Amino acid sequence: MNNDQIKPGWLKTWVVAIRPFSLPASTMPVIFGTAAAVVAGGARIELMPALLAFMAMVALHCGANVLSDVYDFRRGLDMQVTPVTGAVARGWITPRQALAGAGVLLALGAAIGAFLAWRCESAALWIIGGVGVLIGVCYSTPPVALKFHALGDLAVFLDFGILGALGAWTVQTGQPSWVPAIWAVPMSLQVIGILHANNWRDIAGDGEKDVRTIARLLGDRGSLGYYAFMLFAPFLIVAGLVMLRLAQPAAALGMPWTFAAVLLALPAALRCWGKARRRAAPAQPMDFLTLDGATAQFNLQFGLLCTAALMLHGLLAR
Prior knowledge:
Blueprint: H1 10-18, H2 24-39, H3 47-74, H4 95-120, H5 123-138, H6 152-173, H7 178-183, H8 185-201, H9 203-208, H10 214-247, H11 266-277, H12 291-316
Helix pairs in contact: 2-3, 2-6, 2-12, 3-4, 3-6, 4-5, 5-6, 6-8, 8-10, 8-12, 10-11, 11-12
């Protein structure tokens, strides 16, 4: 009997369903936004709200993942699973069970967010959280189904980047600010890069199922240029914000010089670029097929370096 036909235990089934390997892309902005609130926003860190903000993002992302799998399955997409995906496609859980699980996760994330907004007495946090939950639900749920109408890139840019950092900042400071929103743009672009690498690989299959993605609209050559922008524009944005700070020390949006540390992630970006450029004749057979995973690793490295740069600036400023 094929191993895929053997239903594993409850824990493994739901671990595959929620896809925890994807969580760093959404939780890194939360960590970064919390650090930014302390270092740049002058907040005194409150660990329990920070942990709750992190947990809310985890629950919402996992819920969105399960929901996405249900509607992908119903549309006949992503039927060729990997060892860590495809709980619905394998028949390990039914679409109804997956919808119930997604509902629980999304409700849990929304409840945590509502508690934080109530605790902080912040109208802005209600809006940030509400928009985030709405995007997460509408990402794959008909009739909106953002991911099927070339709006998936914008959705992940906001939900798993800008809103995560902005929400975490607001939890700590009580007030929203342009600082975390602008500073989170580089890593938010990289999250688009992760999704785009996946959609680029699936252009042919998406065309057969009438799924519109930015990758499908751009085609193969256009997708290469788009991916290059997602890889390298973050370095240019950081450089520009650092130069702004050097030219105008009082500029609120300027980044400290310590953010030059992100250059340490450039080799990872170049490796991703090499895999993308050699997609027709890869050095290793799986290079292009796993480009989304390589991009996710680059995104995590970049985000950790940004957070470390913030912490170093905080220490030097004492």
